[in-house]
Amino acid sequence: MKKAILVALDYKDEDDFAMSLSELKGLCKACDIEYTKVIIQSITPTKPYYMGKGKVNEVKRMIDDEEMVIVGEELTPLQVRNLTEELGLEVTDRTDLILRIFASRAKTKEAKLQVEIARLNYELPRLAGMHEGIYSQQGGSGFRGAGETQLEIDRRRIHHQIATAKKELARLKKERQIQRQRRMRNQEEVVCLVGYTNSGKSSLMNLYTQKKVSAQDMLFATLETSTRRIRLADKKYILLSDTVGFISHLPHHLIEAFLSTLEEVKEADLILMVIDCSAKYVQKQIDVTLDTLQQLGVNHTPILYVYNKEDLPHDDLLVTRDPHVFISVKNETHIEEMEEEILRLLAQDEERVAMVIPYNEGEVYNTLKQRVHIIEESFPEDGIHLIVEVTSYYKNKYAKYIKMPEN
What we know:
- By secondary structure, the chain is an alpha/beta fold.
- The chain has 13 helices and 13 strands.
- It has a 6-stranded mixed beta sheet with strand order 6-7-5-8-9-10, with helices on both faces. A 4-stranded parallel beta sheet has the order 2-1-3-4, sandwiched between helices. It has a 3-stranded antiparallel beta sheet with strand order 11-13-12.
- One of its GO terms (molecular function) is ribosome binding.
């Protein structure tokens, strides 16, 4: 396990600074890095070193057996180079830690491509500061183009890798779109779990599924979007999607790279924002999640605020957002109330109708059992009598079976 010194910027906002520092420590833990000291940077970052020259010397004096220095902001290539030269050990930043975690957790081809694109975009502007000695002019015979530098060659190589990865990602995105279109044809409603990293999204998903998704007490335990067809208590089926957790100052490289995965959120019929109500900075975490959704272009999708971990101590003055429910995934409490709210919000486009299905059309009955909410059913001689809640799509599709009310 590597040891590191952390350098954090004091934003002059006590909660924001404390939350950012807590996240930085969590990122170190997820990267298997032990932080030994924390140094606070209280002035505006400087262009050459990020921190003031006096602070650089302070860090240098504090180095014992640490192998790296980690800064809680994204550093410029110049700052990385200057700090590395001054301190004589590895210097990295918050964005690099997040990229390391994502790279280690990526399992599917799509996730690996997304991480690769994000990493290459992060490295591209930093090439000039890497292996500076080899970036000398390489003109003359035997080289590709008179006067072309190694830096230009490497930049062109990275641009090519990004283009290749994006092309493959676009192919996978098309496959995902076809799956979404198939779901739309089947009128399967999609509910997406979003929220701050480590808020309990995957644990909630695991309540409903036999095929478990990763749910660990660490940042970014879930990286891939997992979608499962689940059955709620009233026998209604929905598609539930788990997504990568959000975090403050999520690097632009990652948001851009993961857009194809996060499009599940854009296409959802309902968003469940899972919130750790025991978190110290819960209000700021909600704001970060809403800001990230806005960056993704999610502006009009209904949101159910699910305050998880109600069994743990939390602020009695917590200001909730509506519509909301309090639950404990761990203790499986108030799950039925949450399902009722899900159904209520999904039913805004639904209408209650009576239907009669002939016995020789059992396939229609089986489809309705899987796709709509059946409130009542009986089996007299003339057919299967149903009271159902259906969307306008199913009302039109099965209009001939609808029994009009008698005057």
